[in-house]
Design a protein that fits this description.
Blueprint (H helix, E strand, L loop, with lengths): L6 E3 L21 E7 L3 H12 L4 E4 L24 H8 L1 H25 L10 E4 L3 H18 L3 E4 L16 E4 L7 H14 L3 E3 L4 E7 L2 E6 L2 E10 L10 H4 L3 E10 L4 H7 L5 E4 L6 E4 L6 E7 L8 H13 L8 E11 L6 E5 L2 E5 L5 H16 L3 H4 L21 H20 L1
Parallel strand pairs: 1-15, 2-3, 2-10, 3-7, 4-12, 10-17
Antiparallel strand pairs: 4-6, 5-6, 8-9, 9-10, 11-14, 11-15, 13-14, 16-17
Length: 436
């Protein structure tokens, strides 16, 4: 018996306008200055910088370039850090905590300038982000955060009381929220395609469907075995994030791939979109396992995403959960059809901070924790400068010790369904408290 079809297509909505286009096959170089594992946002950004500095550099991807999270994400330029400021301070000290928050602003500004100066046609829209709160306590907490961002970092951020909420989002589910105007949206698959275009034009070689099998020290450099044969590389950069496999076991024990799923509605009437998303903002929530959603770049659909606790196959339940969430937010969409539903892997680590680090000569740039649209290009670019010894240009708050390894973990995230259910239970308790 076949499962019911929840949406018309099980492929990313983004692939309609920007289908995956693997680059032309190129000969495998026997020797390289730098070999990059992964050709998503991070790998291509690093390769672009290295190629423009005259290095011989090639990126190897086990799939088509961008087939992973780079063309499957929501396209929100949040650059968010999951731990709050107090947690960052407790874990890393006040100096690094403030540097991490400040770097978010710098990373977004870098991304926007990069899109503009490189002429990347990726439907970037600087529309701002609304964050919805559940209950008065959460509203007060995120309002204080917005105030701190405005005072300390000069970010245009402010609280929106419940009485004014409908000016920003057409739902009564939240009890107020906050706005940040330094966050926008783009078309993630177009962004990757454009990044690939400029990287190839700059001299980066990209090998599609050519997985790296092993990386071993060989004198002062590395012997990298790929599916197309061995390569001698003076340096190696690993940018695999949520698609890390057994070729890099040290990283695999530290990153957990977590499914993130998105649904897209059919085209909605202009008056419906104007009522539900009047400012066309990106939307997120104060829950630990909440939804993120946005209008499509053409303003005709709503795309809504969230964490998916499934691990294998493509089950129906996570799709229905997102649809239920959409209707809970916007009851008038109960009868709307879904055009697409898909998932991809984000990479989490134990402290939930993106990272550049070096281990036995290999440089790693990974762990974007669901905010890779901003962090992956930023971290990839800094990793490239680290490889070239450009101390000042490589400086970043994310270049420090590796993430801690996860006990009894070798790449199979058997524990994630229980973790996600635990977070959802905490969210339900918080919402119950907020409704008393």
């Amino acid at each position: 018996m076949h499962a019911p079809r929840v949406a018309e297509k099980a492929t990313p909505y983004w692939w309609e306008a920007a289908p995956l286009m693997p680059p032309p096959q190129q000969p495998i170089a026997k020797k390289l200055d730098v070999l990059i594992v992964g050709a998503g946002y991070a790998g291509l950004s690093a390769g672009l910088v290295l190629a423009r500095e005259g290095r011989s550099v090639a990126a190897y991807d086990a799939m088509d370039p961008g087939e992973g999270a780079s063309t499957r994400n929501g396209g929100i330029t949040s650059g968010s850090i999951r731990p709050d400021y107090a947690t960052l301070t407790r874990r890393f000290g006040e100096e690094r905590a403030l540097a991490i928050e400040a770097e978010g602003k710098a990373a977004r500004e870098f991304l926007y300038d990069f899109i503009r100066t490189e002429g990347l046609a990726c439907d970037f829209q600087p529309v701002g982000q609304f964050k919805g709160a559940f209950g008065y306590e959460q509203y007060e907490a995120i309002a204080r955060t917005a105030e701190r961002l405005a005072k300390k970092l000069g970010i245009e951020a402010y609280a929106v009381p419940y009485a004014e909420q409908r000016q920003y989002i057409g739902t009564d589910v939240y009890r107020g929220g906050t706005v940040r105007m330094d966050i926008g949206g783009l078309h993630p698959a177009k962004f990757h395609a454009e990044l690939l275009r400029v990287a190839l034009a700059s001299g980066l070689t990209v090998h599609a469907r050519t997985p790296v099998i092993s990386i071993d020290r060989d004198g002062s450099g590395f012997r990298v075995v790929t599916a197309a044969g061995p390569v001698q590389a003076r340096q190696v950069l690993v940018c695999t994030n949520g698609y890390t496999d057994g070729a890099v076991p040290f990283l695999r024990r530290r990153l957990v791939p977590v499914r993130s799923r998105i649904i897209a509605t059919e085209e909605l009437a202009p008056e419906v979109m104007a009522r539900l998303m009047p400012k066309r903002m990106m939307i997120t929530e104060s829950r630990e396992v909440g939804f993120y959603y946005r209008p499509s770049p053409d303003g005709k659909r709503i795309l809504l995403g969230g964490r998916d606790s499934s691990r294998v196959g493509d089950p129906v339940a996570p799709k229905l959960l997102l649809r239920k969430g959409l209707v809970n937010l916007f009851p008038e969409l109960e009868a709307v059809r879904l055009s697409h539903t898909w998932f991809g892997h984000v990479a989490m680590n134990r402290d939930m901070i993106p990272r550049i680090f070096e281990k036995e000569g290999i440089v790693y740039a990974s762990g974007f924790c669901g905010s890779g649209v901003v962090w992956a290009p930023w971290v990839g670019m800094h990793a490239a400068h680290k490889l070239m010894g450009h101390e000042e240009r490589a400086r970043t708050a994310f270049d420090f010790r590796p993430p801690a390894f996860i006990p009894f973990y070798r790449g199979n995230p058997w524990f994630m369904p229980a973790f996600i259910q635990g977070y959802r239970m905490r969210d339900r308790i918080a919402m119950w408290r907020a409704s008393r």
